[in-house]
Design a protein that fits this description.
The chain contains 5 helices and 7 strands, in the order ββαββααββαβα. It is α+β, with helices and mostly antiparallel strands and 192 residues long. The strands form 2 sheets. Strands 3-4-2-5 form a 4-stranded antiparallel beta sheet. Strands 6-1-7 form a 3-stranded antiparallel beta sheet. The chain starts with a strand and ends in a 24-residue tail after the last helix. This is DUF4188 domain-containing protein.
């Protein structure tokens, strides 16, 4: 288990931060045969991601909101990697959603378990963090913990650091309107 880092630290995230909150709510405790497979499926998906770090999951925190609601805060390398994982037919997530969709279309879901997710993409300058006498946690565990002075002593300073860093970066092609994306000429195109 990681040891607490004395003093104040912040997360060393650079660029966009992609956060996925995903979870389940047990609507009927007595329907163990319905909610236990859902909980096991979530753990299987997390193990699958742990075995393949190149898929883009940087870190995660398992949490409970109540005796009925359990969720995972996931930090992703990019929204593209998150979407690629969700859509990959070779991976467990895709097959589970296919199964759920078939059950729903057949009218066989009974409301015993609720499923949910929320995705947030925070641009540099719109997120900051502080940890005091904590082991690496949350975004700092997903990226790296940094001494607080590297980003600023106050929340406003840390937000300004992110905004300054973003201002120095050229825009990515996927951030530009289609008419502003530089056109790539084929390698064998005649030079004029």
């Amino acid at each position: 288990m990681p040891k607490p880092i004395r003093g104040r630290t912040t997360a060393g995230a650079e660029g966009d931060v992609v956060v996925l909150l995903i979870g389940a709510r047990i609507n009927h405790f007595w329907a163990v045969h319905q909610w236990l497979p859902v909980m096991r499926a979530m753990m299987r998906m997390l193990r699958e991601l742990d075995r393949h770090p190149g898929r883009g999951l940087l870190g995660r925190v398992l949490l409970t909101a109540s005796p009925r609601t359990y969720y995972v805060v996931q930090y992703w390398e990019s929204k593209e990697k998150l979407y690629a994982y969700a859509r990959d037919p070779e991976l467990f997530h895709h097959s589970m959603w296919g199964r759920l969709n078939r059950l729903e279309r057949a009218g066989k879901t009974r409301g015993h378990v609720g499923l949910w997710h929320e995705t947030y993409i925070a641009a540099p300058g719109s997120y900051e963090s502080i940890y005091f006498d904590m082991p690496p946690f949350g975004l700092a565990a997903a990226t790296e913990p940094l001494p607080i002075d590297r980003r600023g002593r106050t929340g406003a300073d840390r937000l300004a650091h992110g905004a300054r860093t973003a201002a120095r970066q050229p825009p990515k092609a996927h951030d530009l309107p289609p008419h502003d994306v530089p056109r790539q000429e084929p390698a064998n195109a005649p030079q004029g």
